[in-house]
Amino acid sequence: MIRKLILWSIAVLLVSCGGNDDPPPVPEGATLIFPEENSECTTGVSVNEALSQVNFKWQASDHTDSYTLSVVNLETNVPQTISTAATSANLSIAKGTPFAWSVTSISSDSDQTAVSETWLFYNAGAETSYAPFPAQLVNPISGSTVQRDIANEVLLEWQGADADNDLASFEVFFGEANPPTTSMGILDSDTMELSVSVNADTVYYWRVFSTDSEGNTSDSGVFDFKVF
């Protein structure tokens, strides 16, 4: 009887010392509020002829202690970042320029982070008509290796938008040269995918030019991928 009591006491002690092995909760992605997606931001406070200060806002996310705001100039691909425990932050950014922005949620209890959606906007300037946002090349991911389909083709996919809502067309350039110089034709603004013929063990380059009804254009930049 004494032996059983001792063994039971040891078991209870081991359980009580074991603690809680559940991993800490990971942060969730923040919901973006302002500047709105595919919009023209006109509320910035002018800093000088070139810059205005914009107040970025998002909703708080669960299991999050701080946030990192990232704002990327789509003409130069240069990012600006700022860390904060609040759900808003001010940044001075170029006027009359397209930007992409997102928020990363961070927890001091977890090594994992969560990234919000990425929204595009134009920071208002002197322009009355804006070029389309540079097309966002979605698939294939740049630098990836992909499998061609049974027809020896790969599907190119992208996303396009325009703050003025007058996006008219896309022109896709594709080939083995960097930058690609072979036009695959003009596509209407509702078409954001195109199948292209490919060969195995070959690296290909592609880019998309977006044009609006005013003749304004933007360039996605060059992506590359390799075919198995």
Q: Flag low-confidence runs.
A: none
Task: Note the overall shape.
Answer: flat
Strand fraction: over 45%
CATH topology of the largest domain: Immunoglobulin-like
Largest sheet: 6 strands, mixed
What is the CATH homology-level superfamily of the largest domain? Immunoglobulins
Mean residue pLDDT: 92
Quaternary organisation of the protein chains: single chain
Please provide the count of β strands.
19
What distance separates the N and C termini?
Answer: 71 Å
Number of helices: 1
Number of domains: 2
CATH architectural grouping of the largest domain = Sandwich
The ordered string of helix (H) and strand (E) elements is: HEEEEEEEEEEEEEEEEEEE
Rg from alpha-carbon coordinates: 25 Å
The helix content is under 10%
Overall structural class, as computed from helix and strand content, comes to mainly beta
CATH C-level name of the largest domain: Mainly Beta
Organism: Flagellimonas iocasae
Protein name: Fibronectin type-III domain-containing protein
InterPro entries: Ig-like_fold (IPR013783)
